[in-house]
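Handout for the seminar on molecular recognition.
Each group receives one record of this type.
Step one: identify the two inputs.
Step two: read the structure output and locate the region that could contact nicotinamide-adenine-dinucleotide.
Step three: write two sentences on what you found, then compare them with the reference statements printed after the record.
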Amino acid sequence: MDKKTDIKSFQHFIGGAWSDAEGGGVFDVLNPLDDSLYAQAAKGTAADMGRAVAAAKAAFPAYKETLPKDRERMLLRVAEIMETRKAELLDCLIDEIGSPIQKAMFEFEKGLTMVRAAAGLCRYVRGETIPSDAPGKFSMSIREPLGVVAVITPFNVPLIKTTRLVANALAVGNTVVHLPSEMAPHLTVLFAEIVAEAGFPEGSYNVVTGFGHEIGDDLTSNTDVDFVTFTGSTVIGQHINEICAKNKTRNTLELGGKSPTLILKDADLDKVMPLAARSIFMFGGQACIGSSRFYVERPLYDEFVKRFAMIAGKVGMGDLRDPGTVIAPIISDRQRSRVKAHIADAVEKGATVVAGGEWEGNRCQPTLLTNVSDEMTVCRAETFGPVTSIYAIDSYEEGLALANDTEFGLSSAIFTNDINKAMHFAKNIGAGMCHINGPTIHDEAHVPFGGNGQSGVGREGTDADMEAMTELKWVTVQL
Ligand code: NAD
């Protein structure tokens, strides 16, 4: 905290020490609810990023030799400290990125689970013995950490992404350089304080705050970085993928989505409706796995639209600290313009707004569109706001075909009691995740979370991260 102004200010965390940006530059972090100044953070430079990668590289040889029981103990300590600093973490999620308290609580609980699950991973970094055709040869594989892992996280679920990816990387013996979203540096700075207090050695976890478009390439193109895990928009993911391909740096990319939900005619709308609302309105639709396309079999279509519009009109838009509030402010001017442009384009081209469409301050009302057609931007592009389109379908087969008519492939859902159609959908939808009779928004620490096509490359989660962030080495002993 800056004593003179009472404005919070954050530094980089490099090599176990807090430091200003080279040249002393800072940038403003705004509270998205009213665009007031929330904090100032060190504006990272190429030199800062170079220092952070060097610190992580220097720390790696000793860190990779730490014992599983010690990494496990430190990770469990991280979870304990998180619990003692829960109020601070929740305040940060509310005031830095505009999370309603119910989303902040959800994220906090998930974050704790991510760290505890990572603690369990420390003992599961295993190879195997392999039968050998060579007489007297003992053959085995050993699994080794890769080295320096670059973690790049988005603004919308900073605690979930930070806890999962940083904790999994550290659990399997890598060191980390973390570039958080320029819109959510405080959350990561708090996490760095917690990691340091939990006893992780100097240089094992490093944070550089700043603008990804200025210093991101200095991280991903550094040849001392052995793995990049990026979560964010598809366009930046593509750019990072190209840089990584040039240097043969392994990577996982968790990108945008346009996740579909199918509602078949035998579905029970009493059960479906609250889940449908959760699928798109949580955190004001700023969820990669939010459902921005609903395909409803015609016999249920009118009733579904009617009920969804009634729910949309009642979704909480009050004080962010009120447990009934669901709708969050849209994070930035740029993102607000995008949401407004998608709605305006749809209306201009003939869509019907059956709920919402207006703004209250920086919050977009829960917005439902019907009569959406292919030439409308909202039909195919990710909006990242509380906006969804509802389409009538004449059969399950038509719904499946439309659901698959997208370049994205993140989450998906189907509501039906027909097990054959449900399982057919699960097997044939081109998405990385499919939920039968559940919303597209679902995540757990140990599941293979991720998408296909323009939604990403690779999976994350304890097992997937362990495999991605380590490599097997074949070792033989001639006896
Ligand atoms: P964003 O792409 O604007 O930013 C994400 C991160 O990338 C930030 O930390 C930013 O600083 C960094 N960055 C920017 N340019 C970079 C560069 N050249 N090199 C390296 N890093 C760079 O995304 P956002 O607005 O913060 O988040 C929203 C997007 O993230 C949406 O598209 C959403 O679908 C996606 N997302 C995906 C998942 C998933 O698991 N698939 C989860 C959450 C969010």
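Reference statements: The first strand starts at residue 8 and ends at 10. Residues 450 and 459 are 5 Å apart (CA to CA).
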